[in-house]
Design a protein that fits this description.
Among the domains are: about 120 residues, Rossmann fold; about 140 residues, Rossmann fold. It has a five-stranded parallel sheet with strand order 3-2-1-4-5. The protein is built from 14 helices and ten strands. By secondary structure, it is of the alpha/beta class. The radius of gyration is 23 Å and the shape is globular. It is an enzyme of class 2 (transferase). Its EC number is 2.7.7.14. It holds the Pfam family CTP_transf_like.
């Protein structure tokens, strides 16, 4: 009998979903799923399927396929995966089992989308990431809230005071659509981090920004920046700094959330949390930065009116990159605002279906317990 580890059967894991407005909650569930096996296959639903069962997605299917492919734990993406997960799908991609979060996903008819794989014993569950959902992010945009900002003595606290049919905290009516507290920990950052340091021969590239509501525009820019060297460092500005140069209620995602969203991207090696707005000589020397990149979006001056890229320009290592994608966070917010009523209806429908399924499960549980008592009494 061989002791060779290569003889061990490869465990293939299946996940599927809408992956609309991909955020660190999605990434965390995929990270947990990958940890249960060796290869992670992710099925992504079409716009048509999502619209039928859930309501209109914010991102197109092509955008969603691209976003999921860029998550560092994903090995393969299956486009147009069926909304109800079947054994045929698992078998087709040689997957041992399916993994999903401990929230409830239902079809337009209120049926659990995982009932077939659950009945066959080919289903595993991972904890849903507390503190974030697409529903919550949509609510922040439409309600123009600022409670998610981290400032002063509240920097490490979580305040989610608003709630509505969009929104979005533990007081929301549905236990799954509703959003509980997100508590950042060093452990969570470690789980998302690559843990790598640049080798002495690596060409280090630095970019900085808000990277708010991480989207395909960011993704294409980071892919282009990654191609400029061997080790990509992303500097993330604080919430108050982002609000200074973007105004309104930006950033939509707070610093802790943005850190995890960027770390989940396969093109990123390291993140500077709360990076200075101006790229300083100290920062460049400390990280041995050889190239500093910025996209085609306008560059705001620093608070004192100075050019934040003055030092890298003086050193002759500043590059303007054209990623070929002009999408901005503002574009996404405008998409949401244009379809506000549709999203409100979508979230209400989702909430109602989840609650009716919860009641049905509770009813069946009570009935089963009742049947057990009858059997025990008659024996």
């Amino acid at each position: 009998m061989s002791d060779n580890k290569n003889d061990k059967k490869e465990i293939r894991v299946w996940c599927d979903g809408c992956y609309d407005m991909v955020h660190f909650g999605h990434a965390n569930s995929l990270r947990q799923a990958k940890a249960l096996g060796d290869v992670l296959i992710v099925g992504v639903h079409t716009d048509e399927e999502i619209s039928k069962h859930k309501g209109p997605p914010v991102f197109t299917q092509e955008e969603r396929y691209k976003m999921v492919r860029a998550i560092k734990w994903v090995d393969q993406v299956v486009e147009g995966a069926p909304y109800v997960t079947t054994l045929e799908t698992l078998d087709k991609y040689q997957c041992d089992f399916c993994v999903h979060g401990d929230d409830i996903t239902v079809t337009a008819d209120g049926i659990d989308t995982y009932h077939l794989v659950k009945e066959a014993g080919r289903y595993r569950e991972v904890p849903r990431t507390a503190g974030v959902s697409t529903t919550d992010l949509v609510g922040r945009m439409l309600l123009l809230t600022r409670e998610h900002f981290k400032r002063g003595d509240k920097e490490y606290s979580v305040a989610l005071d608003h709630s509505s049919n969009l929104g979005t905290d533990s007081t929301a009516r549905s236990p799954y659509t509703g959003c509980s507290q997100f508590l950042p920990t060093t452990q969570k950052i470690i789980q998302f981090s690559s843990g790598l340091s640049p080798k002495p021969t690596d060409k280090v590239v630095y970019v900085a920004g808000a990277f708010d509501l991480f989207h395909v525009g960011h993704l294409d820019f980071l892919e282009a920046a990654n191609a400029q060297g061997d080790f990509l460092i992303v500097g993330l500005h604080t919430d108050l700094e982002v609000n200074r140069y973007k105004g309104s209620n930006y950033p939509i995602m707070n610093l802790h959330e943005r850190v995890l969203s960027v770390l989940a991207c396969k093109y990123v090696h390291e993140v500077v949390i709360g990076a200075p707005y101006s790229v300083t000589a100290e920062l460049m020397d400390h990280f041995k930065v050889q190239v500093v990149c910025h996209g085609l979006t306008p560059i705001s001056t620093d608070a004192d009116g100075s050019d934040p890229y003055k030092v890298p320009k003086q050193r002759g290592c500043f590059k303007t990159l054209n990623s070929g994608n002009s999408m901005t966070t503002e574009d996404i917010v405008q998409r949401i605002i244009r379809h506000r009523l549709e999203f409100e209806v979508r979230n209400t429908r989702k909430e109602q279906k989840e609650l009716s399924l919860v009641k049905s499960l509770e009813k069946n549980h009570i009935k089963q317990n009742g049947d057990c008592h009858v059997k025990n009494d008659s024996s």
